[in-house]
Please model this.
Amino acid sequence: MIKPYKALLLCTLCCNSFIALAQTKTTGEADSKSGPEIKLNYLSNSVFMGRADSVRTAVITPQLKYAFSNGIYLSGSLYVVPNRKKNKVDGGDVTLGYDFDLSDKLSGGLSFSKFFYSSNSTQVTSSQSSTISGNLSFDNDFVTPTLTVDYNFNKQAIAGDLFLNIALSRDFEIDGVFGKDDALTLSPTIEANTGTQNFYNGYIVYRKRKNVQNSAAATALLQTYQSELSQYKLLDFECAIPVEYSRGNFTLNLTPTYALAQNQFKSAAVVKALGLTTQSSVFYFDIGVALKF
Model:
């Protein structure tokens, strides 16, 4: 477990890094991306690293974001679960980030996010407290490889998680779809996620077990498998085709995704006792609109 003062130190170092890096970014590179932005997204199912709750959980996410001309941005979001009769607001997050360009082809980003979840949340990510993320992308006009490293802090004394994502994508842009000022971009993407699964341990212990009656045998089996969740493994493969339509300050996004989960629970007794899902593949989509001022 990472002590609170260490987490605070990491946050401080990240903030200092953002400020130092921001001083090297030229104003012209970010002018078109700066300013306030309002987003509204609909996620058909809350899926993380190929894992999902046994009941499909759709999430609506309104977001406010402000980007500065030096690449630093601030954002805040709410998570709303529309199919609940009550307690529809499931949580939210605040993020401090920095996007930068190292050259014409090499770009990256750094961010720190703090999460807030309802005590009744059944999202797989609901045991996560915060995350530090960094990424680098190289656009060579044929395919864009992206490397993303995340470290997630979990709640309730659950150990943190380290994730590594490797993605390959290619952009296809069509200008003037309905007029000379709009554009349609398709970005077929394949990616692999590796990491630890302590977040899943937290999801099981603090979200699922309190809602079911567990036998002693199932508890003993779960304790055996919990040790495996801290091991670094391949988590899933994902294929997605993000589609973006933009016209002026308005943007419409649609991202259908097919995920193939790896290294899931193998114990039928644990799965049945805790109400987990073992589906090896899941399809979901994200659709959203954004307006920049």
